[in-house]
Specification:
- There is one protein chain.
- This protein is 6% helix and 54% strand.
- By secondary structure, it is mainly beta.
- The protein has one domain: outer membrane lipoprotein receptor (LolB), chain A.
- It has a 15-stranded antiparallel sheet that branches.
- Strand 3 and strand 4 form a beta hairpin.
- The N and C termini lie far apart (58 Å).
């Protein structure tokens, strides 16, 4: 059950090359029409530059099926999911990996996939369980586990207290970041807070300050022409 379309803005604090900052802003633009999605999480700070995630793909009964993804930083990386060839293709480097049978997700699509899974059946993910998905990295794809931890109230939305469910992905490979996300039932399990910590201790923590629902017309299949009326038999 994917979240409704919306625009969210976040206050960002963090540490970059040993220098702390606390006045960053990021925006999450989440769009889908029930058939496909195209969304972006944009962040720019004068001290660290741009770190933007963008992803597009299809909405399926199992959740999101990403088709393309882009991480724009000092070194851009794009990912394309080729379902017919069962391959995931990475640029730059022009490397590829096998697409796992159960699917795979880029880092942005993974966050919304987690939202969809918990929104559809929160009772399946009590504290102590883990959500296991395949996650793309720097030129490859690997299994990832997001451990579900205890519910945690957070101050967000400019002074409100939101109920959240915290999930933590602890890296198993050298060089991968630690990912912590707090999903909020009051905003359809979209991220209330996201914290990404690099191996050197640098981190960025995004806390939602505004969330606005956006109306997007859902795809409607073309109307089928009416069957012709039966011709009355000649008298």
């Amino acid at each position: 059950m994917v979240p409704s379309a919306g625009d969210l803005s976040y206050q960002v604090t963090g540490l970059s090359n040993g220098i702390a900052y606390n006045n960053g802003i990021s925006t999450l633009t989440w769009r889908h029409d029930g058939i496909s999605y195209d969304s972006k999480w944009y962040f720019y700070h004068v001290k660290i530059g741009e770190d933007t995630l963008r992803a597009s793909g299809l909405i399926t009964p199992q959740g999101l099926a990403p088709v393309t993804a882009l991480q724009r930083t000092k070194a851009d990386q794009s990912v394309r999911f080729d379902y017919s060839a069962r391959r995931i293709r990475f640029t730059p480097g022009e490397t590829d990996s096998e697409l796992p049978a159960g699917g795979a997700w880029d880092r942005f699509s993974a966050l919304i996939q987690l939202s969809a899974l918990l929104a559809a059946a929160p009772e399946r993910y009590p504290p102590g369980t883990a959500v296991r998905i395949a996650l793309t990295g720097q030129g490859d794809v690997a299994p990832a586990a997001f451990a579900v931890e205890a519910e945690e109230p957070l101050a967000a939305l400019n002074g409100k207290t939101l109920k959240t469910v915290r999930l933590v992905h602890r890296p198993t490979r050298e060089g991968d970041p630690k990912i912590e996300v707090w999903l909020g039932p009051q905003i359809e399990y979209l991220p209330v807070r996201l914290r990404i910590t690099q191996p050197n201790g640098d981190f960025a923590e995004h806390t939602v300050q505004q969330a606005v629902a956006v109306t997007v017309p859902f795809y409607q299949p073309p109307a089928q022409p009416s069957a012709p009326a039966a011709i009355a038999p000649a008298q």
